[in-house]
Write a structure and sequence with these properties.
By secondary structure, this protein is mostly helical. 43% of the residues lie in helices and 6% in strands. This is Ankyrin repeat and SOCS box containing 11.
Length: 214
């Protein structure tokens, strides 16, 4: 069954349902949007997926913008016990523009999800470097991740040298320890570039210089 804005022949949005999910086929940012007025943009499918979630999952920037302008919820709230928020979904898939639109609509940049952590932690876990850069530029807490696990732990675990450098440049504390009492260096692959960077940042200049001579 089609959603209300499709039934109203909205010229700006083409969507339809397949099973219990909403599929977004595209939205023109310049098209008129009167058909959304008066409808509940927070309608969810039977598996509790909202239109904004779908827009962020698919990287449909214009869709997300229209939904937010018309009052779409920016966090799952009581809709779901298992879904991540729209910003976590956008970051996970590297949809930086969707992420930025959400942040422009006052989404908490350090919103911590118990299952997924902060947006920065998610970006580091999935090695979404563009999202990492933008989140750091916009003031994300560089040491706030998932419980005691920091974004630097996630980057070291993934052997992501560029992300490790970014995080430490923005002041990430390499000595933070997680629930297993491990710091980022403990998670780095031995003799890897990530280990070299972390040794330098921890102030182990002599050991680090030895690594870089080879």
């Amino acid at each position: 069954m089609a959603l209300p804005w499709l039934q109203s022949n909205c010229p700006s949005c083409l969507c339809w349902s397949r099973g219990s999910r909403v599929v977004w086929a595209g939205l023109s940012p310049h098209a008129p949007r009167p058909a959304l007025q008066g409808f509940n943009v927070n309608l969810v499918t039977t598996d509790r997926v909202s239109a904004l979630h779908e827009a962020c999952l698919g990287g449909h920037v214009a869709c997300a913008k229209v939904l937010l302008e018309n009052g779409a919820q920016v966090s799952p709230g009581e809709l779901s016990n298992h879904l991540a928020s729209p910003i976590h979904e956008a970051v996970k898939r590297g949809h930086r523009e969707c992420m930025e639109i959400l942040l422009a609509h006052e989404v908490d940049i350090d919103q911590e999800d118990l299952q997924h952590g902060t947006p920065l932690y998610v970006a580091c876990t999935y090695q979404r470097t563009d999202c990492v850069k933008k989140l750091l530029e916009l003031g994300a807490n560089v040491n706030m991740g998932k419980r005691l696990d920091t974004p630097l732990h996630a980057a070291a675990r993934k052997s992501s040298t560029e992300v490790v450098i970014l995080l430490t440049d923005y002041g990430a504390n390499p000595k933070c320890r997680n629930a297993e009492f491990k710091c980022a260096l403990d998670l780095a692959v031995p003799n890897s570039k990530v280990e070299q960077v972390l040794l330098l940042r921890e102030g182990n200049g002599f050991l680090s210089s030895l690594f870089f001579f080879f």
